Amino acid sequence: MTTKNARTRGARADGMPAPDAAQLILDTAARLFREQGYASISLRDIAAETGMKAASLYHHFASKDDIVGEVLRIGVERVSEEVRRSVMALPPDADALLLLRTAIHAHLHALLKLQDYTSANVRIFGQVPAHVREAHLGVRDGYEKYWTSLLKRCAAAGQLDPARNLHLVRLFLLPGLNGSLEWFREGRMSLRTVSSELAELLLNGLGVRGDRAREAPALKRTAG
Amino acid sequence: MTTKNARTRGARADGMPAPDAAQLILDTAARLFREQGYASISLRDIAAETGMKAASLYHHFASKDDIVGEVLRIGVERVSEEVRRSVMALPPDADALLLLRTAIHAHLHALLKLQDYTSANVRIFGQVPAHVREAHLGVRDGYEKYWTSLLKRCAAAGQLDPARNLHLVRLFLLPGLNGSLEWFREGRMSLRTVSSELAELLLNGLGVRGDRAREAPALKRTAG
DNA sequence: GTCTATATTTGGATAGAC
DNA sequence: GTCTATCCAAATATAGAC
Asked: Does A5 fall in a domain?
């Protein structure tokens, strides 16, 4: 897929030196993809924004697919690092609510505040050519498996209802979080408030606690 | 936006007569958009699939934007009708779990089984040109408001925790449901099982019921 | 109402000078 | 390592015959 050594870039930690040209190209591409999606951004756009010409990009990357593949990969890498680091900083006996709140906050923080790469990933994943998307699935898979392991850790502490299907929960949860890209705006609710509310919703549900609203009659009346 | 009378099409009920050319074009476009996304489908593709040539489409629609705008509109219309009809068929005293399960099932049913339009909407909404997306926002808005009203109906019956932010719940819920487009496959779990599980998750939460896991200490240790 | 032919634009990619 | 110039393919859209 890649002819250059682009695979090693973008894994830097925090305060970093002046980026080389390839790094600048990726940063610019990620920002533009986040802002405007995949299809409407041309190599000419990316080049112009970096102060170069389109042909020059080919010295650093083999193709547009190569660039977007890198942006996708780095996006997952960044959110994954953020969530794992935050969870690892918790005490080993952290309860389910603290775990969920921390992981949700870290995911949203990476998505909404930290970097263009993560939000670009969420935004353009469904837009890139099929073979790029398929090549990227393995990278996503690792992150999704991590979330399932997180939920299992909560369950192992005996704090989750064993009736819940944790696989299904994860499938529902991540798109729900990623949807925040469409509606979160600075100023109204803080990210920490949103994270807390969502963690409580996930753990405690929408219903009143106590012994009402437990069971309901079988669903017979609604047509298929 | 539209120069033809396309706005009146696509609102048909159930068993319908042979579709006219414009209807066939829309049906074909919706199916192709659902299968392959927006950017990779050209007017030539749509025309070829209907047995026509690209130029002929312009007799029925003013532009590609016109076609895709119609597909988006019909998609929301269909899912909205499905959910409203299902909920209206419930007894007036239906409890929160039955309401949520019914609405979730109807939404997923429209998305995954019923029509190409709804899934095309979810799939390509983020891919269409900005002005098409913005023109469509008003249509989506009506459906989203309906969901908020549904949640309020549950709350009015005293079955929801008043601490929950219903607006936030809706923002989280709908993308969570729409994500099923990426993972739901026939055969494993039935749609009804998925709907039930998600409704119970939403109402009762992930945690054990009973008086454990209620409160947790404030979040102080995790870095921002 | 559908066709052929074509105008026009745009984007990815390459060749080769500097 | 970046540039200018250009190729080639594909897409929307239009003109006008039938």
From this structure: no
Nucleotide nearest to B58 (CA to C1'): D13
For residue B175, give its domain range.
Answer: 67-223
Tokens representing A193 are: 């408030």
Shortest CA distance from B214: residue in chain A: A204
User: Which of these, B87, B20, B95, lies nearest to B59 by C-alpha position?
Assistant: B20
SS3 B207: strand
**A142-158 pLDDT, tens per residue?**
999 999 999 999 999 88
3-state secondary structure of B160: strand
Is A1 domain-assigned?
no
Cβ within 8 Å of residue A80, ≥6 positions away: A142, A143, A146
Torsion of the alpha carbons at B99, B102, B104 and B110, rounded to the nearest 10 = -140
**B150 pLDDT higher than 50:** yes
CATH code for position A188: 1.10.357.10
Contact A207, B161 (CB under 8 A): yes
Count of domains in chain B? 1
CB spacing of B89 vs A223 below 8 angstroms: yes
The conformation of residue A111, written as its DSSP 8-state character, comes to I
Q: Give the residue among A38, A182, A31 at the shortest CA–CA distance from B122.
A: A182
| Residue A134 covered by a domain | yes
